[in-house]
């Protein structure tokens, strides 16, 4: 029974990189959330300018707008992302990698919880248009579509890498993940249901949740490896 695939090699450099990545994501997400909550004028001005330009394009290009609705409401919908993550968890469970299965599912649930908690706390109003091309409920910040895609695609890409996917297959998978994360953000802006900072906030928070899941699982793997190596006295016998 394989509960973990621990990395027994020295991980000092990897740990440092992960720490810097998490700190950067956390700081950027926190700063953006504060600026949105405080209605910082330069940010609001930028949001309105970008959203207004994209909305004018959406009204003028109904065919392209319909394509964006299909991508946003079906292909990259948050429920599609959650189903993919759940399928990965079920697959891991069937392979008897049960701790990892629970870890992946928990990261997805955590992302959803953080998303809804921040929406409620910030309570940002969505863009309003005289001639809307789409509609959405609940508060705007952060974008649930952008955050769900970042969490799901990040976790799935990590799992594929752990399974040894390399070369051209990995390039295709990584490209599909990147296109999905970037694409869903664009669709939400183009359809006029989010401000740019909502989407960026969703990306940052999604990247943070994914990074925390990966880092904590790696730490758990090293801890289990160390415990297994300890003798009856509880002392690490060394390599």
UniProtKB/TrEMBL annotation:
Q: Where, by residue number, does the polypeptide cross the bilayer?
A: 20-38, 74-93, 100-118, 138-160, 172-191, 203-220
Q: Transmembrane as a keyword?
A: yes
Identify the residues that the record assigns to the Phosphatidic acid phosphatase type 2/haloperoxidase domain, covering every copy: 98-214
Q: Give the domain of life.
A: Bacteria
What InterPro entries does the entry give? PAP2/HPO, PAP2/HPO_sf
Coiled coil as a keyword of this entry, yes or no, is no
Q: Per UniProt, which keywords does this protein have?
A: Membrane, Transmembrane, Transmembrane helix
Q: What's the protein here called? A: Phosphatase PAP2 family protein
């Amino acid at each position: 029974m394989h509960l973990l695939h621990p990395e027994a090699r020295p991980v000092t450099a990897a740990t440092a990189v992960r720490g810097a990545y998490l700190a950067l994501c956390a700081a950027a997400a926190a700063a953006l959330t504060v600026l949105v909550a405080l209605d910082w004028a330069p940010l609001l001005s930028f949001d309105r300018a970008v959203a207004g330009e994209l909305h004018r394009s959406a009204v003028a290009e109904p065919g392209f707008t319909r394509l964006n609705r299909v991508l946003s409401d079906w292909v990259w919908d948050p429920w599609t992302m959650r189903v993919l993550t759940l399928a990965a968890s079920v697959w891991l469970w069937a392979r008897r990698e049960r701790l990892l299965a629970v870890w992946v599912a928990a990261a997805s649930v955590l992302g959803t919880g953080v998303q809804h908690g921040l929406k409620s706390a910030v309570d940002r109003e969505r863009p309003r248009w005289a001639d809307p091309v789409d509609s959405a409920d609940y508060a705007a910040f952060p974008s649930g579509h952008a955050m769900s895609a970042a969490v799901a695609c990040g976790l799935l890409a990590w799992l594929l890498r752990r399974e040894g996917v390399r070369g051209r297959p990995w390039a295709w998978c990584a490209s599909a993940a990147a296109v999905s994360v970037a694409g869903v953000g664009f669709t939400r802006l183009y359809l006029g249901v989010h401000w740019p900072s909502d989407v960026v906030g969703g990306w940052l928070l999604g990247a943070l949740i994914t990074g925390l899941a990966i880092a904590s699982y790696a730490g758990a793997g090293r801890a289990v490896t160390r415990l297994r190596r300890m003798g009856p006295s509880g002392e690490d016998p060394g390599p």
